[in-house]
Amino acid sequence: MFKTRFQPRHLFACLLAFSTSLSAGVELGSDMLELLNFEPLQNKRVGLMTNPSGINRKGITTVNLFHQAREVNLVALFGAEHGLDGMAQAGKEVRDGTDPKTGLPVFSLYGPGPIRKPTEKMLQHIDILVYDLQDTGARSYTFISSMGMAMDACGKAGVEFMVLDRPNPLGGIRVEGPLFNPRFRSMVGQWPIPYVYGMTCGELARMINGTGMIENPCVLYIVPMRGWKRDMVWQDTGLNWRPTSPLVPHSHSPLFQVAMGMVGEIGGLDLGFGTQTPFELFASAWLDAPAVSEHLNQLDLPGTRFESTHTTVARGRYKGKTIPAVKVHFNDPVGAPLSPVNLYVIEALRLVQGRDMIRIKNDEGKRWGLFDKVNGTDTTRRDLEVGRSVKNIVESWQEGLDTFKEKRKPYLIYSTSESTKSNAQR
User: How far is CA 22 from the centre of its chain?
Assistant: First the structure.
């Protein structure tokens, strides 16, 4: 095991822990830190940003791991969106408090004010802030916004920052979706990266710190995983999934969140919220599910299939009623397109049923602020308003995606598996 210090543009440190012995499955950053006997944290006052998704491969939360380790002086806890317990609904502000299990203060980084980054007072008794949150691989999921903003606050306060790396559940190869316009910067889009960016949180932290995305770069430590490869989605890791928030209950949920999240921001369709399959279908009393699913299947999207079915609604106008639905299936979680599915669904409703969801919502006076912020641009909405084909919209992303792929290369930590490399060379 060794430490390597990197200094690409700003002071920047990366802890690379590994063993030459083979390991079964993926070991997380928290697992590797424990193997190091928590040496990088010894003799430091430690703050921890996490929620119940922050578990090691044995299922032990990082809060318990740190609290029980004699080598770690854990002095404060930090919660991002959904709170330290991960139960608050999306967008709901959470107040500071005290953790009943450890008695430690809990600082909310999604609190009233609004507070979205650590304040000077929160950091004044901390030497290093450790980040261990499981994100979903989508730019709009606010954990990575909180991570980078906390890095900036730590850089300004002279506090070190450590990322315990975790898998990107969408894998490290897929890069897709709308590009980012700084005019639409928000918690659901903070960094100039594609909607699906194909990096672990540790890799992204390196990029945020090394490319001037934050005003105050911090002293950054990354504790990498062992055994993770870029072509792995979550189901390939052998790790247990702990819900990251109420609408991301399963290990496959991030796939569907990306594929249907933009549709959800338009409104007018039931997406299975309140059931065990959020984002996995779209439904309405007026939906001609057989015709719409047939149209979508004729597109022959790689690794993707649409099934006509019915669902019992858990929330809203049709609560308790069984209505037509189209179920989305991903037969190839690595190769299937995700972001484009949103647009193909919107297009299918317009072409098959004459239901122009954008126009309908415009006529209802809908404000598009959150939709545009989630997209990181208003170009997607404007393209849909004028009926631009999804094929052309997706093609318009490509140049920017290729540029991003080159820009991220110096900050990547992990490689693809040898089998994937061999197949690519054939």
Answer: 29
